[in-house]
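Q: How do we represent a protein-ligand complex in a form that can be generated token by token?
A: Start from the inputs.
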Amino acid sequence: MFMDSIGVCIRLHTKIHNMGGDITMSSMTISNLKSAFGGESMAHMRYLAWGEFAAKEGFPNVGNLFIATAYAEQIHAHNHFRELKNEVGDADVTAGAGFGLTTTSENLQGAINGEKHEVDQMYPAFIAVAEMQGNKGALRSFNYAVEAEKTHITLFSAAKDAVDKGVDYDQNTVHVCTVCGHTLAGDLTDPCPVCKVGVNMFKTFVTEK
Ligand SMILES: [Fe+2]
Ligand SMILES: [Fe+2]
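Then emit the structure tokens for the protein with fe (ii) ion bound:
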């Protein structure tokens, strides 16, 4: 039903654009890029806050994971911003945001919920619109983000399992691809599976002693 509505909007919008001979990026994708920029920017700041809190609560490796993941969200926000190119001017941005600073376990659950929303609902809808309208740059930026968010769900879930047992996350090293935001813990041996750049293009975060 939701996708049917998107399809109707896209067809209508495409028709309007074609009538005017406009081949620039669709207004729906421009709006989606702005919303995704808002969401990723806030996730970046939220993870920095939750990372600092985790370290203070006695989970320094969880803190490091949050800080590394905050950097991945920054990569996504920058990618989306760059795709907006000459869309100059102010805009009100509507984007989902989680709040709260209670326990590291709850913060991790909040992070998992946010990532799942992006993977299951937000980015698939944005990708469908960009794909149907042939907005290749936006499509790449959305695809990079959604693939990285999947890795964030896995990492945050492993960290939450540890914290709920009263111990720190067992990985003190996290790597983030500086091109697409792909994130992994432990050893870095292979090129990025998403955007294919080499290991030299990753930024590494290690828990401070
Ligand atoms: Fe994420
Ligand atoms: Fe990558």
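The radius of gyration is 18 Å. DSSP finds five helices and three strands in the chain.
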